[in-house]
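Re: folding output
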Amino acid sequence: LLACMKQLNTRLDQQRIVIFGAGTAGMGIAAEIKRAIMKLHHLTDEEAARLFWLVDYQGLLLSNDPALTDAQRLYARAPEEVATWAQPFD
């Protein structure tokens, strides 16, 4: 990721990071990328987590999902953020 950012002449904290799979592996990858962003760009845990969009089998992780783990909850998006998105199965 860092080599890619250098090649594109941009910063990691200016990206939207989408991870498909919010199980233990996906959460581990998100945590490592988040730590790098925090260290390189001096962001807080919450600020860095807002750059991520995690998608699992049920869709985008939303903060109102009671089944989220503690690790997933940090990355979950507020339902209001996506309220105007199209609902293809309605």
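--- second protein (sequence, then structure) ---
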Amino acid sequence: MSDWIDEIFEEFEELMRPSWDAAEKCLEPLVNIEDRDDEIIVTVDLPCVESREDIDLNVTEDNLEIIARIKEAIRWERWGTSQRHLKFKTFRKSIRLPEKVNPEGSRAMFRNGILKVSLPKVRKRFTIKIQ
């Protein structure tokens, strides 16, 4: 029962975490991670990003970092008892991958504001000699 409650609190904390960083002036994009048999597919929503030249991808065997520059800064203003003005210039997201991948075999495609990254899984196969 205790493990179940801990899982619920972890999920709640993840949902309630801010999706922006005001100090860095960056937004966190929406991400979908699909774990297939031989690869991991990461799909990222990057509205207001104009071209693939505006996107930097850094991948290791267990992490994918996405940094994308926004064409025109996105402004957020809140009026009330406390006034707040934020201007976002980039998207930034670091994703811990569910399995180890081969960074050299990775591919990415960007079209219509959607980034799709294919990361082949590391497969170690051993032959067992029968005696």
